[in-house]
Protein 1
Amino acid sequence: MAHIAVIFLSVTTGLFFVLIGTIKLSPLVNEEIYRDMRKNFIRFSKVFPLASITKFRPSPHALRRVVGVVEVVNGLVLTFVPGPLKQVANIGLLLSCLFSIYCHYMVHDSLDKMTSHLIFGLLLACRFIVRLQVNAREVNDSNTKNVNLKNDRRQYDKVPSKMSTINPEYDISAEENVQNKKCD
């Protein structure tokens, strides 16, 4: 059941970020939202989190394009690519959500502007945790199967085989028991 939940979260959040990233990159989906995104990134570039440390402030258009490409690529990976790359894409999208939340908070936007990023950030965090639990369960199940297999081999070794009838030296204790019974 948890595996189905991880797949569902991967597909829905991945497609959401592909859509949002596409809106940030081009006005093809909705021109009005695209203009709002451009205005937001002009404000976001002023509060870029690493500007105080690196003394680097990216241009608003470059920042918008980078965030859009990160969201589209990671959304596609989260939706279509199997394997451990999904976890990397999940972390990338989670960092993108945290960046957006930070920027909205720093420019004093209301909570309704941050809501979608908060919700999808929580969904990504839940997906990450559930996937870790599924991986841990799979490892635990495979270890249990290996232990059971070893126990089955040990029990098989304890059962007298057909070799005792072919080679009498194989199971000497059985012959000794038979001879002791004859003597009694």
Protein 2
Amino acid sequence: MATNIVPYEIAELIRRKKALYCRSADTKQWRRFSEFALPEATFTFVDALTPNIPMTEGGQCMSFSHRVAFLNYSEERNKDLQYIHSVGPGELYFVDGKDGKEVKAIWSVIFHVGDGEKTRGFHGTGAGYYHEVWVKVGDDWFIKSLRFERVYWKACESRYRSAVGARYLGREGLQLCVYAEKTSFPSCFPLPFMALLLPRANFSSKLCV
């Protein structure tokens, strides 16, 4: 029987703090990082194809030797971006030889990032794994080291506004219209077979092309 299983109370506390990590980053509440990361915590970001070499973004090597260095970079780099992280439940294990005072955690993550434009501009989707070590301080737990390994990244940029909408035409069904700023006029297509699937109202939503 495995002896490195983390008890529920400790695992739940670490999971809650990891959720707070994501929410604090997504909402740019950088000061809250002191609630879950040590001042000397290290942060490193790599790609799965080159796992031994930190990534470089905007001329910055993505390896930081303490919390303040990481937060200073993040606050400036991300000030005009919108993004969200979604992490899995995680794999948590006690680190051997640490008398139950260190926990290794591996979290899957999917993230989306884009600029402030709502219907055009940059958008990217990525995924990977956080490899972390959490250390016990008193009765609490904090990140000692974080290493993110990116396994997926896809980005695109649209220079033109676009939208998709539909109009209910009664017995004739629906008319789907796609508008692109590049063409300056909509393209419309009849969709009679969808008439019973959608409410009898005009509507529109954004479409990235």
Protein 3
Amino acid sequence: MQTPDTTLYPSEQRASVVASWAEEALLKGQEDALGKVFWRLIAEEWTGFDAIPHGWFHLLFHRMRPYLTNDVMRPEDSAAFNALPEEFTIYRGTDAEALPGLSWTLDRQTALEFARGHRGIENSAPVLLSTSVKRSDVALFLKEREEAEILLFAPPKAPSVEEPTAKELMRPEEYEAHLAKLAQIDAKLAETDNI
């Protein structure tokens, strides 16, 4: 079965292109043929997706779950996944208005970076979600781009929600510049008080 060439599309369209392709194959009764390539395509392409329709993929993941085999992940991803405990904590940085989604990370700092926004997508109300999951909840583990991404079969029901502090949301150089600016303001206020 021919897979879509996602490089022809910008990152914010790639996920929908893949979901449409998979849905079309299912509608044509090509589930077995799709099953042989679906998870490998997801493992290879997922980290290049933005604006992911998580609800659509949740349905596709449910339908395609019987076709998932251990060999779709890169060997280093599979080894890292197999080394995880049976239950562990994952994080997701997102906008407060967004639904929990399928893409999470093992790394709190990575989640904070996504709470700020990424690849030109800014979050107006950044939040950090966390929850505990079992290995059986995980479709794929993707270490590509050093994000320790956990791709779930389904979004978690009730993750914990935390509003990150300004310090957590700023990159270290931004925070240092912010502190320097606050010090300048304090100095000016102190001068005004002495007049």
